[in-house]
Structures are given as structure tokens and as C-alpha cells.
Amino acid sequence: MAFTSINPATGEQVGSYPEMTAGEVQTILEQCAQAQRAWGKTAFAERARLMKSVARVLLQNKEDYARMMTAEMGKVYRQGIAEVEKCAWGCEFYADHAEGFLAPEEVATEAHHSFVTYKPLGIVLAVMPWNFPLWQVFRFAAPALMAGNGAVLKHAPNVFGCALLIEKIFADAGLPANLFRSLLIDVPLTTDVIHHPLVAAVTITSSVGAGRAVASEAGKVLKKCVLELGGSDPFIVLEDADIDRAVEVGIVGRYQNSGQSCIAAKRFIVVDAVYDEFEKKFVEKVEQLKMGDPAADDTYIGPQARVDLRDGLHDQVQRTVAAGARLLTGGVVPEGPGAFYPATVLAGVEEGMPAWSEELFGPVATLIRVRDETEAIEVANGTEFGLAGAVWTRDLARGERIAADEIQSGAAFVNDMSKSDPRMPFGGIRNSGYGRELSSYGIREFVNVHAVWVSD
Fold first, then answer.
1. Which domains are seen in the chain, by residue range?
2. Is the confidence at residue 157, as pLDDT, over 90?
3. DSSP category for residue 291
4. 120, 156, 262, 415: which could join 40 in a potential S-S bond, CB 3.0 to 4.6 Å?
5. CA 65, CA 68: separation in Å to the nearest integer?
6. What is the pLDDT of residue 1?
């Protein structure tokens, strides 16, 4: 069996990759385990030196890496450059801070000496999606490797070229051979890897269904698992918000990466006092977003990653309109090749409609009118997801209170869009998953918190 990657802008084949056999996977795991045993004893200073080398390789070749993402999943080239730069930032961040995050901690007890250390677990398996083919991987790999672990990647089949590219990046940067490897496999072999005794833990970024499947398999063999799954992030606009700025940032938050982001602003919950102004300005700006060739400088909306994903999104839009919502712009599949879908805005969305309860993973914004702050918070929390959220108000104390105490999610932002940042923990609650990536919390997910007690 061979996997193929298809350029979603043209429908042309980009690459073909033979599936690895069970024997090849076994060899890779053995080699990775051997490399990890030595790496786990390597000083932090040496790990940091090599991780900074990874950052340099990323920055030196960012144009080539962005072009690979554009070819394999249709990422707008300019946004691909920004993604590579963010990967370099993540590597530099953990190179600078990993040793401090994992420093031994003294504990006052009646013992002569008692303390806690943080030790690597071994090999971490990552099951990663296609929407941010590099960043999703580096945000797990940089902390996992800096903690002394090895890593194997099972990437999405439509971006296996990116998977091999990432493996090469680590090799080119001088990391030990086989410390990071990509596995070109499908679901059955992935299950075998989860169960493999050389694999210590699993992290997955994917859909709710895939997360449940991976967590179930990891649970059977009692292995630590971190899940970053779907999202339907609320974007609350209160009556005292800066509407122009909320529109500007909200459009980036919804439509960047052609709308294909778990943490995108998906439900715009706007109080009645400013709803009409927000809707008018939002739609005007959305209609200015150019859809087209993702390699072109003036393109903002590229294709969806696959035709089947585009068609599924369109079905959600059609079912929502059929249930009574208003289509303000977009919502029509264009003629011609590619998996293109225009920037779309739905209004009049009510409970029970697909756009109310389902994740719309593409360039579709849902506008919801509410009476006041109380109803806005109620609607924001009325979801199976809980990845992130945002609230817009000129009253910073009010916004901080809502973000800290009212929005039920892994993160909340005031007067900004939801986003990931190496300095802050990232992850969700409910069907958005559990565990955290990034910051000190992310690097401590895949270590043994090891207590040491020394008596006289």
C-alpha cells in the first residue's frame, strides 16, 4: 500500500509514500529507544545547544518548508512562513527554559534530604493532524526532546512529505540519529505502536472521535496520554467593545489557515446593542478576503486540505441554512479544480442547528445575537467543547472577570483572539481533551515526577 499526498489547490499528486511494514516499525522503535537512553543522560546544556540548532535550520530554510506545506495541504504561503517562524520560537523557548522547568525541587520534610526530580519517560508517540503540519509537531517535540525523551511521529497521511521533512530537520540540526523518527503507517499499525512496550506515552491532536480511539488504546496498556481535540470557540462581543478592532481581529481569528484550526473563533456571540453594527462591518470585511492560489501574495483563503473535508463543511452549512439560518455571504462551492470553499458567514443560528453545536472546521463564521452579558456567557458555555474563548470589552476588569471566572475552557482571552503561545499552557476541557502542551505544564506532561527521600 502507498499513501499519496494531493495538492488541494490543483488536484495533482505531490508525492507517494509506501507504508512501512511492522518489521520496519519495530526496527525504528528499537533504534529510537537506544538513542533515547543516551539522550536522557545528556546534559541540558547540550540538549539546548542542539535545539537552538534546530531553530536555526528552520529559519534558514523557512521558504522551502512553507512551500512544502502549501503543496501538501494548501496552506497560504505567507502563513506557512509564519508557521515555520513559530516553530523556531518554540524550539528556542524550550532551549532557554527546559532546565529551569525541570530543575529538582527541594521539599521540607523530617527526612535528612527530600526532593522531587523530573526524569524522561522514554519514547513519546505523537499522532498529529494536517492543519498545522509543522507547528503541531514542534510544539510537542521541542519540550518532549528537551525533557530527554525520544519521539516517533505518526502524521496525517496527506502530509507525509512534511513528516519526513521534520525528521530531516532534526537530523540536519545534529540531533542524535533516530532520536526523532516519522512512521508512515495507518491506523492498525498505529494501534500496535501505542501498545508497544518501548513506547511510554502518547499525545494526539485530532478530532474527538480519533482522540477517544487513541485514549482507549492507551488506557488498555495504562500509558499517559495528552489529547488536544476539537473546539468551537466563542468570541463574545459586549456593548462597550471596540467594534472595529473586534471585527479586524475576529476575521483573522476565524479565517487564518483558511479556517482550519481547532482554536479558531467559530461562534461570534454579540449582544443586541451592537449586533447590527458588528454584522455589517464583519460581512463587509469578509467579502474582501481573496480566495485563490495559496502561493500568491494577495491570497488569504486557500483551499481546504481535502475535497472530502470541503464537501463535509458545505453539508454543515447547507443543513444549517435549511434549518432556518441566514447565509450572509459565501456558502457556494466554486467551479473548477481544487478543494476551495469561500469565506462564509451564517447569521440567525439557533440551538439545534449544526452550526450551533458542531465544529465547523473551515472558513465559516457563525453569528449569534444575544440579549446581554449573561446570555452571552450562557451561550458561550453551552457547548461540548472547551478549548478557548475570547471576550471583547473596553472595561478590562469586566473582561478579566469573565475570562477568569465565567468562560469554561482551557484558555480565555480579553480583547484578542484565541491562540497558542509557548509561554502559556495550551489545552482544553470536556470534548476538547485533557492535558496541556507548551509552557512549564507541557514539558512536565511526559516526565516521571520522581520523589526522593533520604533518611539519616
1. 2-229+431-454 (3.40.605.10), 233-419 (3.40.309.10)
2. yes
3. B
4. 120
5. 5
6. 81
Residue 335 annotated as catalytic:
no
Residue 79 has a pLDDT of 98
What is residue 261's three-state secondary structure? Answer: coil
Q: How many CA atoms lie within 13 A of 366 on its CB side?
A: 31
Query: Which of these is catalytic: 262, 279, 359, 406?
Result: 262
Q: What predicted TM-score, i.e. pTM, was given to this entire model?
A: 0.97
For 254, other C-beta atoms within 10 Å of its C-beta total: 26
Whole-angstrom distance, CA of residue 115 vs CA of residue 195: 32
Calculate mean pLDDT across residues 192-215.
98
Cα dihedral 300/301/305/310 (nearest 10)? 170
Catalytic annotation present for 228: yes
Give me the catalytic one of 217, 228, 359, 445: 228
User: What residues contact 188, with CB distance under 8 A and at least 6 apart?
Assistant: none
Q: Please, which residues have CB within 8 angstroms of residue 134's CB and are 6 or more apart in sequence? A: 65, 69, 83, 84, 87, 162, 166
